[in-house]
Amino acid sequence: MTLSIVAALPLWAVVTGEQLSRMLESLERNLLTPIPLCFVLGIVCTRIHGGIKIPKELYLSIAIFLLMSIGFVGGHELAHEYQMHGVSTIWKPALATLFLGCLTPLTSFVVLRYIGGMSIADSAGIAAHYGSTSAVTYAVANSFVEQTNHPANSFLPTLVTILECPGIAIALVLGAGLSSRERAAKATPERRHVRESKLYEALYEVITGQSIMLMAGLLVIGFISTMFMDDQAFQPFYEFFQSKGMLFRGALCIFLLEMGLVAGERLGDLVKVGPFLVAFGILMPLVHGFLGAYFGHAAGLNLGGCTVLAAIVASASYIAAPPAVRLTLPEANPTYSITAALAITFPFNIALGIPIYYEMAKWLGAT
Amino acid sequence: MHLYPLKLVTIVGETVIMEDIADEGLKLGATGYTLSEVIGEGSRSARTVASTIGAKTMKLEFVVPMHVAEAILTHVSHEYFEHYACIAWLADVQVVRGQQYIK
Fold first, then answer.
1. What interface predicted TM-score (ipTM) does this complex get?
2. Best of A46, A56, A191, A198 to disrupt the B interface by mutation (most B CBs within 10 Å)?
3. Reported pTM
4. Which domains does chain A have, with CATH numbers?
């Protein structure tokens, strides 16, 4: 508790009364919209044992649609950007994102291991979740900045794809390396070999997993078709996938409802994970979000772009990371990482984090 | 009709390890397996929600001779019981066309 207060002090020290009221206004603008409200409905429904049940096939179909949509629209906008400016506006944000993707698992690991006193496996397992990103948080952040009339730079989906892998890879290699001495005492050479092969298998599965294959694949398809199709023939595809469209926003509401149902079930685990992890799940995203907004601004992103980059850097993966961590670091307790990512950080970002990152980006001077 | 006395090895556990165990079972002498998604609750954690966030549970079944069953159960208990939510059991079964389950 003391730790949370001490860590929060520098943030509050720089917030003036006017900024605070603006922040509250942003919070209200974000909270009282269908997307976060559907998430809240899901949580409430689970807690009162209500009857909402999203069929698994629908949930999986929507996940596929959202990932395809993010990739396709991103590829389309990327092609426009490329036609107008070449790669001059993209390379700096891409490098900044790669740097942040490598930095966030390390900062998370250091905080968990040396401030939280958690085991190497648990620290690395949670760091893998926080080093990667959540595509749904991206979609919600993107909707938020579009509602505020500050749409993000067109190539942000490319940055989501860049951010997905390095964090998981770094944390798993770090965890597997540091805990190898602990394991060596009880592992036979044969078991050590099995464990090493699982690390490669896990990394391969992250890179070839659904999120990356759909987002990166559709990004390439969106890019190529924008470059080579005429506008009229391309239009129906764009209308189906576009993020401002009713199909995307409606699908996002259903997805968030399901996420709320799952997060609601995980709320009971908050007691098990303890106050340190609850504080970590809120404060670490704020630190990572600030770094995202700072480096995004330095790399030339606009206000919407800085906000969205901050949100994706601050978010934690709960789809790609858990199986990779289970395979590579089986001694890490999955309750810690999934509860922190899904029941603490995800709701925090959806409800409060995104408007805070928006104000951070404004405060840094992004326009 | 001739029935062959064989063993049914059933393993229920986390999705993330089940395909590996299926492959390892084949290497240990099984001629095939059945893998299905199930819903349940165990001592390690509740797995009642069949979502995509890694909380799924799967059931793996092998029909094998006794020596293969023992090899599979020994391997699973040695490699997976310590860190993964996993349960395994053995049952006697009478199998039609049982000769094809023996290598």
1. 0.70
2. A56
3. 0.81
4. 56-363 (1.20.1530)
